[in-house]
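Trying the structure run again after the queue cleared.
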Amino acid sequence: MTGSEPENLEVLRAHIRRLEQSGGARRDGATLSLGAAALDRRLPGGGLPLAGLHEVRPAHPELDDGPATGFLLLLAARLLAARAGRLLWVSRADDLHAPAAAVVGLSTARLLRACAARREDLLWALEQGLDCPALAGVVGEVDAVDAVAARRLQLAAEKAGRPCFLLQRSAAGTQGRLAGSPALTRWQVAALPSDPGLPDLVGRACWQLDLLRCRGGRPASFEVEWDDATGDLALAAPLRDRAAAGVA
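Done. Tokens:
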């Protein structure tokens, strides 16, 4: 071993530590606000880092697939409101409900939908989409992704400077396979009862959002409600009331 090798090794280790602390994402400051200050404050840079991989999954696949999809549709709508281009949404089946996308403000004119029967083809389509400058980002609906495939998507998203969202449609039994994922964030979504406020009226959609993983940040849990008039998320009323009482 030459005298310079230990020094070079230490430089390499320091570089790896910096990448890990930054989540491996490009430090261009590009983030996406979730529309709720309480959520944005828990994310590095004050919002969702755009140059990287993000995972969304239902807490209970048989019950919370709708809320998880709704949360991802909301993220997609906010992305297209902030960036030019179109969004590529790749799934195994052609079952994305277009009216639901319109409700959250996601323009179907800017939505490209593709189906891939095989997981390998779906992942390939996502990588190709990330390499396309005309797209603002990509979304893939998958059952599970191994660490190698997830790393490829993270690196592709980092290089492109645009997000890749993975919707884990079947979360049951995949926790171990997801443990080594390089995703910048991992969200788990569950439905909560809504408070209609008035009899016989449907209230705002309420979700339990668990931030299970956050590169450069800490896990957190939120009870939120979605305002279909503004397209924003906010802390659910009981949490706002408790926060106000604490300040008083």
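Residues 111 and 170 are 23 Å apart (CA to CA). Worth checking whether this holds up in the mutant runs.
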